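can u do me a favor
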């Protein structure tokens, strides 16, 4: 049984404000929005001076991970990226080191 009002369901028409921290969990976003979310997140993290960020994409079949890594490989703010240490998500998260020149 779902006790939420219909008004509590996000319909995709309004922007969602996400706090910019040193990590982002993509499980809360629709797959169609992942590319835009990651690109915007990287821009904001760079503006705020983060030296590295953790992007949590999950393990699954690796589709989200491939999308994230494709974005990271083309983004001017990203110096390098790799799997997170096991304690930070292992294969289910990617650490990106940001570049400042």
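np, heres the sequence
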């Amino acid at each position: 049984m779902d006790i939420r009002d219909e008004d509590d369901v996000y319909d995709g028409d309004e922007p969602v404000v996400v706090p910019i921290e040193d990590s982002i969990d993509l499980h809360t976003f629709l797959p169609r929005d992942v590319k835009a979310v990651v690109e915007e997140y990287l821009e904001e993290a760079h503006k705020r001076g983060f030296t590295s960020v953790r992007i949590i994409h999950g393990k699954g079949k690796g589709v989200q991970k491939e999308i994230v890594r494709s974005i990271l490989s083309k983004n001017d703010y990203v110096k390098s990226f790799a799997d997170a240490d096991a304690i930070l998500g292992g294969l289910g998260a990617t650490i990106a080191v940001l570049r400042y020149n």
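Confidence is low (pLDDT under 50) at residues 1-6. hope that helps!!
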